[in-house]
Amino acid sequence: MAKLLSCVLGPRLYKIYRERDSERAPSGVPGTPTSVTNPPSSSWDTYYQPRALEKHADSILALASVFWSISYYSSPFAFFYLYRKGYLSLSKVVPFSHYAGTLLLLLAGVACLRGIGRWTNPQYRQFITILEATHRNRSAENKRQLAKYNFDFGSWPVDFHWEEPSSRKESRGGPSRWGVALLHPEPLHRGTADTFLNRVKKLPCQITSYLVAHTLGRRMLYPGSVYLLQKALMPVLLQGQARLVEECNGRRAKLQACDGNEIDTMFVDRRGRAEPQGQKLVICCEGNAGFYEVGCVSTPLEAGYSVLGWNHPGFAGSTGVPFPQNEANAMDVVVQFAIHRLGFQPQDIIIYAWSIGGFTATWAAMSYPDISAVILDASFDDLVPLALKVMPDSWRGLVTRTVRQHLNLNNAEQLCRYQGPVLLIRRTKDEIITTTVPEDIMSNRGNDLLLKLLQHRYPRVMADEGLQAVRQWLEASSQLEEASIYSRWEVEEDWCLSVLHSYQAEHGPEFPWSVGEDMSPEGRRQLALFLAQKHLHNFEATHCTPLPAQNFQMPWHL
């Protein structure tokens, strides 16, 4: 009876992965009944095949879940319509509640039928036995057995907790349960006394900004967190996860962040191979509709690196919602997991981000300054200009206030706090992070990210002459145009390197540098163009084109 109840309440099972011959154990899972043994190898080659009763019950419950999601998103309009028609009176609500209660009882009955279908399936009974054994005893063997199954990630046991590192328990400067530290924007009106009357005047605007951010704004910014989209992408995500596990020997893990959110991760270890890049770990930060199953992790994997992918809060197996604070909390526990559980030193970790993933990448670079390098692909400097592009001009004040208070992705500000090597990859046909049209390459916000980084690190070089030369270079949309501008100013790379090496030897490596202070305008132009060319590479593609492995290069450094 207990097993039947476990089958009723258990998670949905999607796939049983192929078992490698080298991993096949001779006996069952320690600590579980002797009936739990490894199935024949042929059973690992296909998706889990539910019995007819389970299959049809699952379809009914999935359809009910989709209808519930549609009802949730349309509820404000539905309530408004019902109110206008007078259907919200007590005499109308009571019968409706009876219908709703009857429907819930029917769905509960369907769930029980699904449990009976699972109970009659030996594969599911074996799975639920292994899952229960793993929750009781999280031994390495139990986890290895459980990793052969792909199921609803909510039932996966937590593998790493944010407080697990001993240094966190002893340190007072680490994250609290409220979250890690973020850079907060300055007040819009500096010098204004923050009196009670001013707070009251601001209250309606603050309430409106909060409602916009937590309804329309968050879903526009992170469409991958919308349940209906995830439901549509589920077959693709399952295929991508199967490829990572079966072909790349990936290991899935659940991490618990300081805010309680559970983060879904996938680690591919290449340290045992002959290629030297396998000793380096690339932590991948996906875009606003990207998942590690089908995202940018493929680029460093093809290049031979060890890779750690993770999903934003609210994406696929990760819980929560993707607001900046939750994003930074998730990134923090991912980095801690890489250092304290996977055994990588910060000097062996590279942060690679695509698009909106630049926020968590720059936060990690700012918060973990010993990280080896940062690579930002198709990223931007600040969210406000991009948000203003897609919203009505009359909403400018509301959009700016909402972004600054609730969705402040200040990539450039965070990146300028990092002292290590940085490479920016600009898509010359990018249609997402341009503020006008894709053909207008100067409206690409990656340009502003580069300019702010160089102006912070080399303020004397990026004076009038240097800034003007870099802007001209950024206007080039092809390698031929780049080379033409580069040769026009007769950039001598050996001379630029000697100047930078001499300054570093005399003043040390910490930015900002005052190099170029006593330099001629021609020298500043040369040095500015040299630095721009080292920090930004063009890729002739649109925003969502996968980056080829040959374009995944380590950033330049002295």
Automatic annotation (TrEMBL):
Keyword Transmembrane assigned: yes
Bilayer-spanning residue ranges: 60-84, 96-116
Enzyme Commission number(s): 3.1.1.23
Residue span, AB hydrolase-1 domain: 281-407
Gene3D superfamilies hit by this protein: alpha/beta hydrolase (3.40.50.1820)
A Pfam family hit: Abhydrolase_1
InterPro entries: AB_hydrolase_1, AB_hydrolase_fold, ABHD16_N
Keyword DNA damage: no
One Gene Ontology biological process: monoacylglycerol catabolic process
Topology in membrane: Multi-pass membrane protein
Biased composition (Low complexity): 28-43
Positions of region (Disordered): 23-43
Ranges of residues in domain Phosphatidylserine Lipase ABHD16 N-terminal: 3-152
GO molecular function, one term: phospholipase activity
Catalytic activity: Hydrolyzes glycerol monoesters of long-chain fatty acids
Cell compartment(s), UniProt: Membrane
CC terms in the record's Gene Ontology section: endomembrane system; membrane
Alphabetized PANTHER family for the sequence: ALPHA/BETA HYDROLASE DOMAIN-CONTAINING PROTEIN, PHOSPHATIDYLSERINE LIPASE ABHD16A
Similarity section: Belongs to the AB hydrolase superfamily. ABHD16 family.
Role noted for this protein: Phosphatidylserine (PS) lipase that mediates the hydrolysis of phosphatidylserine to generate lysophosphatidylserine (LPS). LPS constitutes a class of signaling lipids that regulates immunological and neurological processes. Has no activity towards diacylglycerol, triacylglycerol or lysophosphatidylserine lipase. Also has monoacylglycerol lipase activity, with preference for 1-(9Z,12Z-octadecadienoyl)-glycerol (1-LG) and 2-glyceryl-15-deoxy-Delta(12,14)-prostaglandin J2 (15d-PGJ(2)-G).
Name recorded for this polypeptide: Phosphatidylserine lipase ABHD16A
